[in-house]
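#dry-run=false #mode=assembly
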Amino acid sequence: MPNPARILLKEETLDPAYLPPRLVRRETELQLLTKRYREALGKGLAYHLLLTGGVGSGKTALAKRLAADLERTGRGSELPVRSAYVNCWRRASDRTVMLDLLRSVDVSLPDRGYSLAEMIDVFEQGLRRRPQHLVVILDEAAALVKQETKLVYLLSRSREVALGSISLLLIAAEDLLPYMDAPSRSSFGVTHRLSLAPYGRDDLVEILKARAELALRPGSVDPETLDQIARIAAPNGDARFALEILAGAAHAAEDAGSDTVLAEHVRRVKGSLLPTLSESQLEDLSTNELSVLLALSRSLKGRGAAVASQRLRAAHSALLEELGGPAMSRTTFWRTLKELERDGLVTLEAAGSGESSKVAMDDLPASYLATLVEERIGRARPRKA
Ligand SMILES: Nc1ncnc2c1ncn2[C@@H]1O[C@H](COP(=O)(O)OP(=O)(O)OP(=O)(O)O)[C@@H](O)[C@H]1O
Ligand SMILES: [Mg+2]
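#status=ok
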């Protein structure tokens, strides 16, 4: 009998190394680059590009998608297109990068004794043996470029230095032009640079949706849960973080025997990925803040990613009554919510006119927070005579 709680049907498609067939919200960029490469290759020319963008903005995925698409369809003039991907982060020297590039033209040299010039000769022979247009992707290229690389120059002038037909795609978080020598810099003019904007919350929702469709059982994750994850990852626009939370929450849901991924699973995972709320932080909170947090935790427990502020206020009033404390005015309630927001403990979301705004708390499983807050209030409350 199939396990009803199976959620991660194709977990491997959430792995960071997996290249999705479609990059939603990067279609425009992919189209633009495909067009530029095709035009150049069609004329028998090379095309160089510097691709920049923040962490998790999809640089590596976009470059690999582009290279795979060009290999499949983009014959450059008469030449078939092939790509070579090198991550330079740990191999930040021309020689070590060259060793990887040699492998891409099916030559392997032992990692000793050869000068860069000798390696380039062998590389050229390898290229000549099998005529092709090579798209060289140097990922995490900052360290290499900052070390006064000669390779960037050689690869960007492959024709002039009789190295064969090579296009160079450099990837970095920051602009590398200030670190390049003048001749290399001239290869990366305005139409040879693309900077990826950080993903916004909407973009992250679409990305999560597309990746959930690939990896998870249909219907096993609520749109609201995806929106919650997007909200958490949006301040950095980091798709990797968003996908990590999705995978973790799906695991947490399976472990808990739930057949859907719920807000509570996301909170559990986010709490373990980025523990932002500590017990000592709770110690610093006022009784007002604690009681609002407790009402919020209870309203969220097991349900929903956010609660309407009106509902929260009702729940809070009921809680104060239960605890035998004095009622809180509307103004104080709002001020307290604002304080909690300022402390980064809750997120307030303005709603359309007439609607009540939403209050969310993503940091900890609500059940855990409720226990902590109950303890605190229990201790702070004067004993009844
Ligand atoms: N538009 C998208 N659609 C689907 N998945 C995406 C998209 N953009 C990024 N991803 C996924 O998000 C993760 C991070 O993307 P990627 O590794 O390309 O980011 P990056 O900009 O190279 O980050 P870093 O600077 O840390 O290397 C990858 O798993 C990637 O598959
Ligand atoms: Mg990358």
